[in-house]
Amino acid sequence: DIQMTQSPSSLSASVGDRVTITCRASQSISTYLNWYQQQPGKAPKLLIYAASNLQSGVPSRFSGSGSGTDFTLSISSLQPEDFATYYCQQSHSTPRTFGQGTKVEIK
Amino acid sequence: EVQLLESGGGLVQPGGSLRLSCAASGFTFSSYAMSWVRQAPGKGPEWVSGISGGGGSTYYADSVKGRFTISRDNSKMTLYMQMKSLRVEDTAVYYCAKDPSEWFGESTEWFDPWGPGTLVTVSS
């Protein structure tokens, strides 16, 4: 199975800050990497698919990049509604696997 | 609008069985693969099972293979998960999620949208 490792596990930031979350795959997955946002008590929501494609309706302050084994999710200017937990997920092979999550908290 | 709604969760004893359902609306159900993804308390999501649009191809995580069975009734626009021999470690919120294509397992695959989830608690 492909292991996905996110860093950091949590971070504290202020409204307006630029935030970057990293996801590393245990083997090359090309650009078959998706990002999700999860608010407490809610289902995950797709933000980015295929490493860098913004899902319809997602604000443009979110962006994704990377290929191979290293990927990043960036939020250009953190908004109050962005405080949540973020997960990466690979679709290169089955079983599909997720990272352990990065919790973005208010500083 | 695409909508998914899970049901069937509850409290069950270890070794017991449960059947989850996911009612879909707002899209041509038979044209899309579907998946079940679970999330244990305080943990990240774990993909459990996937099924092609026609229902002819199914896939399972090793952790549930032989115990869980995914199926679908396209005439009722409903996805199912039959769970047997349940273990304490199966305790989680179970979500159904829509794939972007008819075939599960393609590399260009993501889960969108997800239903609100149904809680399964396995405990004596």
Description of the molecule:
The complex is a heterodimer of chains A (107) and B (124). By secondary structure, chain A is mostly beta strands. Helices cover 0% and strands 50% of the residues of chain A. Helices cover 0% and strands 45% of the residues of chain B. Chain B has strands at residues 3-7, 10-12, 18-25, 34-39, 45-51, 58-60, 68-73, 78-83, 92-98, 118-122. A 6-stranded mixed β-sheet of chain B has the order 2-10-9-4-5-6, with no helix packed on it. Chain B has a 4-stranded antiparallel β-sheet with strand order 1-3-8-7, with no helix packed on it.
Largest interface: A-B, 24 and 25 residues
Integer-rounded radius of gyration of chain A: 13 Å
Range of strand content of chain B = over 45%
Number of helices of chain A: 0
Q: Which class best fits the helix and strand makeup of chain B?
A: mainly beta
Distance between the termini of chain A: 36 Å
Rg calc of chain B: 14 Å
Content-based structural category of chain A: mainly beta
| End-to-end separation of chain B | 40 Å
Task: Give the overall average pLDDT of chain B.
Answer: 96
**What integer is the average pLDDT of chain A?**
97
Low-confidence stretches of chain A: none
For the biggest sheet of chain B, the summary is: 6 strands, mixed
Number of DSSP strand runs of chain B: 10
Strand content of chain A: over 45%
Label this structure with key terms.
heterodimer; A: mainly beta; 7-stranded mixed β-sheet; 4-stranded antiparallel β-sheet; 11 strands; B: mainly beta
Q: How do the strands and helices of this protein lay out in sequence?
A:
The complex is a heterodimer of chains A (107) and B (124).
Chain A (H helix, E strand, L loop, with lengths): L3 E4 L2 E4 L5 E7 L7 E6 L6 E5 L3 E2 L7 E6 L2 E6 L9 E6 L6 E2 L3 E5 L1
Parallel strand pairs in A: 2-11
Antiparallel strand pairs in A: 1-3, 3-8, 4-5, 4-9, 5-6, 7-8, 9-10, 9-11
Chain B lengths: L2 E5 L2 E3 L5 E8 L8 E6 L5 E7 L6 E3 L7 E6 L4 E6 L8 E7 L19 E5 L2
Parallel strand pairs in B: 2-10
Antiparallel strand pairs in B: 1-3, 3-8, 4-5, 4-9, 5-6, 7-8, 9-10
